[in-house]
Amino acid sequence: MKSKIDYEEILKLIDLLEERNLTRFELELEGFKISIGRGQEPSLIPLEVNTSPQAAQTPSQETLPKQEPAQEPDDLFYINSPMVGTFYRAPNPSSPPFVDKGESIEKDQTLCIIEAMKLMNEIEAEVEGIVEEIYVKNGKPVEYGQKLFGIRPQ
Predict the structure, then answer these.
(1) Which of 51, 57, 70, 78 has its CA 20 to 30 A from that of 99?
(2) pLDDT, mean of residues 31-45
């Protein structure tokens, strides 16, 4: 049995993961282990516990940052990222963006590109409407399920 796995075999495993709609795949061979996953898994973060008397004091309301929940309109249709990758608003750096905020769009119109593993994946509109919000900046990484666009259906 080989102890090395090449890049092409890893790509085949990723394709299999998507084809079978799996969220996680692990393979362990002699001295080699690979773990592939889609989406976000909850992770445990070890916490340090400070048992000093000063740690037991609760901070005053003035020291706590004020967080107001973001109010999202209920009537928007959201386009979410179907994969992990890099978000691009245009086909190349010298081209104008596929869409801008306030523009009217048609169903199946290309809204952006997500680059994943050197593959350019066009993300298309699922509804026709007006682009009310663009949640990601050009060239920034996106996660699976992350909100990309808010569309007001027409």
Answers:
(1) 70
(2) 60
